[in-house]
Amino acid sequence: MPGSASIGRVETGISMSTARLLARIRREFQDHPGMVVTLPQAQSRWSLEKSHCTRALEMLLAEGFLSQIGDVYLWRDAPVPRFKVAERTPRHL
Questions:
Q1: d(CA 92, CA 86)
Q2: Domain segments of the chain: what residues?
Q3: Which phi and psi (to 5°) does residue 73 adopt?
Q4: Which of 55, 62, 68 is nearest to 21 (CA)?
Q5: What is the full DSSP assignment across 14-54?
């Protein structure tokens, strides 16, 4: 179905709707570097059926964009947060 977010293949590679879906998922992970999702959360977030969502996440894992730890998916190259822990001065009562 044209314009749908279905995961499918054409002679030249992935379909345009699949390419758009993968780009959208990549962009969300890049916009929110600490984001992690499970399959059910991803299905809900991107309004996908389980099989379509699974296929999209598998494609992003295969290309090295995502990593999977247990049942959680995260952006493999997410920047490590840099912060300093402020020293607390003791309170005097």
A1: 18
A2: 9-75
A3: -110, 140
A4: 55
A5: E-HHHHHHHHHHHHHHHHSTT-EEEHHHHHHHHT--HHHHH
Max Cα-Cα span within the chain: 75
3-class SS of residue 82: coil
Question: Do residues 40 and 34 lie in contact, with contact meaning Cβ atoms separated by under 8 Å?
Answer: no
Give 14's strand partners: 9
Q: Which amino acid is at 50?
A: K
Specify the CATH number for 9-75; select among 3.40.190.10, 3.40.50.2000, 3.10.290.10, 1.10.10.10: 1.10.10.10
pLDDT tens per residue across span 34-73: 899 999 999 999 999 999 999 999 999 999 999 999 999 9
- Reference 53, options 18, 29, 27, 9; nearest CA is 18
pTM of the model: 0.70
- CA atoms of 63 and 61, how far apart (whole Å): 6
